[in-house]
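Example 3.2
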Amino acid sequence: MAPYESDDSAAIAQADDERRAERRRKAARYVVPVTVVGVAAATIGLVPALADSGDPNLPKISAQELINKIANSDVQQLSGTVKISTDLGLPDLGGLESSLMSGATQGGGGSSADPTAKLTELATGTHTLRVAADGPEKQKVSLLESGAEYSLIHNGTDVWGYDSKSNEVYHSTAADSGKEQHEAPATPKDFADQVLKSVDDTTSVKVDGTAQVAGRDAYRLVVKPKQSGTTVGAISIAVDAKTGTPLKFTLTPSSGGAAVVDAGYTQVSFAKPAASTFDFTPPKGAKVTEGDKAGRTGGSDRHGDSGKSGKATGTPGKGAPKGLEKEGFDVLGKGWNSIAVLDSGSKGGLPTGSGSASGKAGDLSGFLGSLGDPVSGKFGKGTVFSTRLINALITDNGKVYVGAVDKAALVKAANEG
């Protein structure tokens, strides 16, 4: 934990250990267990700019006390609406991303209701979610779209994904790949937990005034990197003064401008949701796809038909890492300047191949190269792909360097690596 103003790092580290222990004891989760879409999903999260109304007059509180308040929050029941806005500054791919995702699910025997593919939509744009939780065994997240809805429901041992647009259903169990690997951030609390468990002596943390979010009084906790070279500018977390629940999460980049991630409740209630909220039965005629215990997608059938599902092979979805080292990555640097290093196994730089989203032959290497920035150094040559938060360097010898750092930091890491 980071030292902030009058608190020392040892005290914060102790609070962090206590917070983690408390989290293990508490089962409350505000996100349906789902297959996370990768490192970026864990980093970027969800939710748009929400106007704060007023600065409530609240008792003074230190950063240490506010962190403890978050850690000790025992809220297990809630429901509400979360708005999500993500602006990574990604280029317009002209529908290529949707085409590739569609091909991946259809060609691999998958389902449009599989959360692995569906949650990639949250990486860009503005979205509205309805969330509900009733303890450790019941959670629901619904992504509201124009004329359609996608829902993830965890009820006991069952996890259901339902896409009303395609009338497809994905079903697995909470134990299929380990619950921790199936969690995806979907509320300000999820983002706050990820940030607060990661900060260290490279971070400044302080209380910076009050706010009102979704009609509730809140303290504003501000987290800032002390290091240069990171793409993270500051993180602001609005914490409910009564319950200690994070109500809003905003991450602004060091480059300035609009927030990369702005996630917050527009409405929230801490009353017990109706039990029927978590009930789900596949609609008649819906295509139901089963997930096996390895986290792979199995065959599918039509709900109500007599045919049995067949098994299809596939690659298990990897959960977003809680810590890069634990996931088998080599890590260079410290704190906000940490860079994950992996070997893609592809020599010669960017992959090449024929075929494109339009079905015409094309040079994939040339297309990807047009989106990146060629660089060179002691390591040789490579291409840097940049967003407003996460940047990656792919070298011609197959190494990949990725982190919330600028291009210069990636090149330096490759030279030293």
